[in-house]
């Protein structure tokens, strides 16, 4: 089934007022972005410490008399540690983005 296009093939026709209104987006540099970046930095630090702690408890030593030390790896703890680091990395990138947008001046 073919449906007619709402405007001709050469595109919709806009008035100058419509074009001016569409080219003035909301400003990206807003002061609240600095607060968001600060909160994200704190969350990144907490996630990094949590990942370090989870990685440490993810290796449980097994003591066997007369043998070299052996470790049991707890996969769920190690996976949570890796996930915490990945989330911390994403939040760190977003914190940098928010800080740049908070500090950028509009031209």
From TrEMBL:
Region Disordered, residue ranges: 1-20
List UniProt keywords, sorted A-Z. Membrane, Transmembrane, Transmembrane helix
Q: Which domain of life is it from?
A: Bacteria
Q: Which residues cross the membrane?
A: 34-55, 75-96
Q: What is this protein called?
A: Uncharacterized protein
Highest lineage ranks of the organism? Bacteria, Bacillati, Actinomycetota, Actinomycetes, Pseudonocardiales
């Amino acid at each position: 089934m073919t449906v007619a296009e709402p405007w001709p093939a050469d595109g919709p026709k806009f008035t100058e007022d419509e074009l001016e209104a569409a080219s003035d987006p909301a400003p990206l540099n807003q002061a609240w972005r600095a607060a968001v970046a600060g909160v994200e930095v704190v969350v990144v630090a907490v996630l990094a410490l949590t990942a370090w702690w989870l990685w440490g408890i993810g290796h449980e030593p097994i003591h066997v008399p007369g043998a070299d030390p052996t470790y049991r790896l707890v996969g769920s703890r190690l996976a949570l540690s890796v996930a915490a680091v990945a989330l911390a990395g994403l939040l760190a990138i977003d914190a940098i983005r928010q800080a740049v947008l908070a500090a950028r001046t509009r031209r």
